TrEMBL record:
InterPro entries listed in its UniProt record: A_deaminase_dom, Ado/ade_deaminase, Metal_Hydrolase
Keyword Zinc: yes
Upper lineage: Bacteria, Bacillati, Actinomycetota, Actinomycetes, Kitasatosporales
Official protein name in the record: Aminodeoxyfutalosine deaminase
Keyword Hydrolase: yes
Gene3D superfamilies: Metal-dependent hydrolases (3.20.20.140)
CDD domains: ADA
Cofactor(s), names only, from the UniProt record: Zn(2+)
Organism, as annotated: Streptomyces cahuitamycinicus
GO molecular function, one term: deaminase activity
Length: 353
């Protein structure tokens, strides 16, 4: 069961502060954010699927033996998303869950290749996510932006298709800001994706590959050198290389840290062994994120509570972490100033109580 991942140690007041704190989420996957209710509903609609409909069985199903097992389970949930209406509903509900946690801005990682190869029409797919994005902003005030990621293990065919979908002016959605690379890292060398990242960057997209989640620091170097990464998804193994940490700190290349994810996929053994403290000590810009929250029995608020414990933070420290995410985001200057102002106002109000 994954419930034990929710941090029981955070003091009550700090939990309430985190719940109130305006936040930005920079590393959260689209299908990986499907709530148990949505997954159960979709699984009931598709009885041929192996995904359980019962929420308790679902919690067991979302307990992973290793990263490869996690990806298998992830793809079984991807298999449940079969129509543009499924895509729209999922996206809108994800935004609702983010808004409930005072997330003002989120960059959602979407894998369009996984949907188009399963038969969803590409135009209808783009319309569905854009429709949900506009509805979410109007109704919840949460601004959504997209990162389209290549599922690296699916090879260069997937890279070509993702790049086409991200750069074709007739298809490219208005909310798209960045280009990523996800899935397993072992045997999926970053340099082979350089031509695809070059095209995406030339089309104005930011580079945000996963790297160093399940392999060593060389993968992070490769992401920086070959894919011109502006932020790194996870980057956990960077802690093994002091020169890399110094490089990340000097160039303000943020790490998208997702502590509970790293435990759930068994990339890191225990939270107390998570290298987040080393990142902070080295002066790296650390952002806190949730990755695939319901699958890992967490949410963004809980990840902030975990970070508060691991880094021994009070309200001011948590506000700084929230501001790191705003700084590292691809929001425009006015958008950054607005959310930073909200974080400061919320913190001042809490401290004056
Ligand atoms: O869709 C397919 O048919 C397909 C075929 C072969 C391989 C893949 C993938 O590897 C998909 C990976 C999938 O996982 C997403 N994801 C979610 N959380 C994480 C994470 O923490 N680290 C890496 N990848 C993650 C990723 O966005 C892809 O959608 C697919
Ligand atoms: Zn991820």
């Amino acid at each position: 069961m994954t419930q034990h991942l929710v941090d029981p140690h955070a003091p009550r007041d700090l939990k309430a502060f985190i719940a109130d704190l305006p936040k930005a989420e920079l590393h959260v996957h689209h299908v990986g954010s499907a709530s148990p209710r949505i997954v159960s509903e979709l699984a009931a609609r598709h009885p041929d699927s192996k995904v359980p409909t019962d929420p308790e069985a679902l919690a067991d199903y979302f307990t992973f033996t290793d990263f490869a097992h996690f990806i298998d389970v992830y793809l079984s949930v991807v298999d449940l998303i079969r129509t543009p209406e499924d895509v729209r509903l999922l996206t809108y509900e994800v935004a609702r869950d983010l808004a409930r946690q005072q997330v003002r801005y989120a960059e959602l990682t979407i894998t369009p290749f996984s949907s188009t190869r399963r038969g969803i029409d590409e135009r209808a797919f783009m319309d569905a996510i854009e429709d949900a994005r506009k509805a979410a902003e109007a109704e919840f005030g949460t601004v959504l932006r997209w990162c389209f990621d290549i599922p690296g293990e699916a090879g260069l065919e997937a890279a070509e298709e993702t790049t086409r979908l991200a750069t074709d002016d007739r298809l490219r959605p208005e909310g798209l800001v960045s280009f990523g690379l996800g899935g397993p890292e072992v045997g999926v060398e970053r340099p082979q994706f350089k031509p695809y990242f070059d095209r995406a960057i030339a089309a104005g997209l930011h580079s945000v590959p996963h790297a160093g989640e399940t392999t060593g620091p060389q993968t992070v170097w490769d992401a920086l050198t070959h894919l011109r990464a502006e932020r790194i998804g996870h980057g956990t193994s960077s802690a093994q290389d002091p020169k890399l940490l110094a490089h990340l700190a000097e160039h303000r290349i943020a790490l998208e840290v997702c502590p509970t994810s790293n435990i759930a996929t068994r990339a890191v053994r225990t939270l107390d062994e998570h290298p987040i403290k080393e990142f902070v000590r080295a002066g790296v810009l650390v952002t806190i994120n949730s990755d695939d929250p319901p699958m890992f029995g967490t949410d963004l608020d809980n990840e902030y509570a975990v970070a508060a414990r691991l880094l021994d933070l009070d309200e001011r420290g948590l506000a700084e972490l929230a501001k790191n995410a705003v700084e590292a985001s691809f929001l425009d200057t006015a958008g950054k100033a607005r959310i930073t102002g909200e974080i400061d106002a919320c913190t001042a109000q809490w401290l004056s109580r």
